[in-house]
Amino acid sequence: MSELPLSEQFQSALKGVNNIVNSNLRKDSTEFSLKLEQIIHQLDNVKSSILRLALFSINETIEEIATKHIQYLSIDYYIASCLELNMDRKSRAKTLKSSQKFYLQFLHSLDNYEILDKSQSQLLEHFKDPYNPTLEELRPSDPTQRREYKIENFKQEKALNERLKIIDQVDNLDDEIVRQVYIDQLKLFALNALQSYEGNMLELEVLKNIPEPKIEEEDHPDEVLPFEYTDKLETLKSPLVSKQGRVLKPFTIVSDRNQLRSKVYGTGQVLPSMTVEELVEQELQNGGMVKPQQPQDNDEEAGDADKYHDQETYKARQWDEFKEANPKGSGNTTNRG
Asked: Which residue windows does the record flag with biased composition (Basic and acidic residues) (predicted)?
């Protein structure tokens, strides 16, 4: 148990919460998980100190609580919000459920001191199981009412944030103003708690339907480093293939060691070793391609055709000259009647 005063324990824990929320670390990293675990442990110590000092009772009202003690009513809210940050897949569902319990405990504490507004108080009374409400009990089923509910919450949140701008000046403010600032902060946390609770319920429904990954045991007779390599099967001391047929060690079979060595400083890809013309010539010689037939020379045929046409033209001209020289009937002069 820490020997620091409760106020210093509380402020130290809040500083840790602020740092982890604004951290640039990956939420699924080991470093983040360790820091988060330390902060949750700090908050748990603060809660233990509050319970040990018996600062709150269900038989008293908010007016009976000292102003400096009102802020400690938020301890369950801080624990719940930090539990939400745990992103470990194996324990995600479990931590979300724990977070839900702290959120509800925080809301019921505020309801006991009549800090919640009327609609929030009625919402808690509507739960059949005070610490295990259903999603239907948490929000209106009608989409229009649900939208109006969210709009109203947004307006309240905006107004509370506006009033809480002076929270850093509480040491210089009047006691009544400080008291109201702490109460307004609790009201803002109540809005956030209800929204977070609803979001967690939806996530839990998704996680419930995700099958757990199956871990298959594989046969590893000897540890094989990913960079181990050999170019001769004779040099292998451990099996190449497991009983299940899995390749345990990569290997390459080559006919010439120089062939393998030549690839070390290569381009990383197979380059062409001959030109297109050389490939075509090789295919023609091997019978892989057939040389296309060249079209026959038709000059001779064309000459014969031209000669034939010239002869026909000459004969036609001779016949025309003969007919002009010998008109029809000119040769029959003896048998005219």
From this structure: 304-326
